Amino acid sequence: MTIYFKLIILVICMSLSSCKSIIANPGKPLEDNSLELNQKYEIQDFTAKINKIKITSVDGKNIYGISKKGDFISIDKQQIREVKKVKVVSSIVVGIMAIAAVIFVPI
Question: Which residues span the membrane (predicted)?
């Protein structure tokens, strides 16, 4: 039982560390309808600064959001290098399904 418990903890840690999907990067430009309002994103600009924000509004030139500290942030779309969407719930579900497959599927 302790081996399964260690395996469960390991899979959950791995799934939480890889729970981001890339929305835009230098090879894949940011499209107007790719960002959803009230969702959490990590936005990296060309100065390598990473902003973790919840998107409140998007217009033709800027993206507006709120950080975890409650600060209002405005980012110019031309200065965005990479956008990642945080998907914690789906990663946990995949991890649990992998654990269930290991436990219940006979080898």
Answer: 88-105
